[in-house]
Amino acid sequence: MASFSEDSHLRSQTILAGCVSALAVFVLICVVMVPAAPARGLIAPKAKCANASGFHHKAVARKSMVCLTNYARRKKGLKRYKGNPRLNRSARAKATDIRRCNDFSHTACGHKFVFWFRKYGYTKKPGWSAGENIAWGSGRLGSSRAIFRAWLKSPGHRAAILSRGYVNLGVGLTHGKLLNAKGARIWVQHFGRRN
I want to staple 30 with a disulfide (CB 3.0 to 4.6 A). Which of 35, 74, 150, 157 is the partner? Predict the structure, then answer.
């Protein structure tokens, strides 16, 4: 999870990412081996939020991820995130960067964390904050439900999903070869708030 905040008086950046390959392995291990305690009760039933692979219908998969995210927020008594077209575009561009440069990081292709937020105009006015979750998986580990479960098991990622500090959400998804894994699905969540 990475976050950035800017207002007229304060600018701070915090990137909470470890070793890139270790994070990729961590996400995959979380899905398979870590007990479900942090996610208990926060994962929507399939009847509420379908599981989607993202190979043939990316829009359906992105909608599934938004549904899973807002279900977990509702279970914690939080307001749902509002979709934001600028954040959807920035998240899709970030996912494409990660795949294109074969660089699973918050600074893929050498771009600063906030590059795509700025490129698509989310940060035009002062007083904004932004956060990002990234993950990838292949096979069943790349589905919306598997990725979301892994994020909930990670304290930093779960904090962004359940944050009171953001109000907007955008979801990006692409697939292809990543870190020698064919058929990888790369997921990005962009969170934001503008004053």
Answer: 150
Tell me, letter by letter, the H, E, C secondary structure of the chain.
Answer: CEEEEECCCCEEEEECCCCHHHHHHHHHHHHHHCCCHHHCCCCCCCCCCCCCCCCCCHHHHHHHHHHHHHHHHHHCCCCCCEECHHHHHHHHHHHHHHHHHCCCCCCHHHCCCCHHHHHCCCCCCCCEEEEEEEEEEEHHHHCHHHHHHHHHCCHHHHHHHCCCCCCEEEEEEEEEEECCEEEEEEEEEEEEEEC
pLDDT tens for 86-113 read: 999 999 999 999 999 999 999 999 999 8
Strand partners, 186: 136, 174
Residue 189 pLDDT more than 50? Answer: yes
* Residues 80/170, Cβ–Cβ less than 8 Å: no
- Per-residue pLDDT band at 78 (split at 50, 70, 90): very high
Task: Find out whether 127 and 8 touch, Cβ atoms under 8 Å.
Answer: yes
- Residue of 108, 39, 105 whose CA lies nearest to 75: 39
The tens digit of pLDDT for each residue in 17-28 reads 333 333 343 444
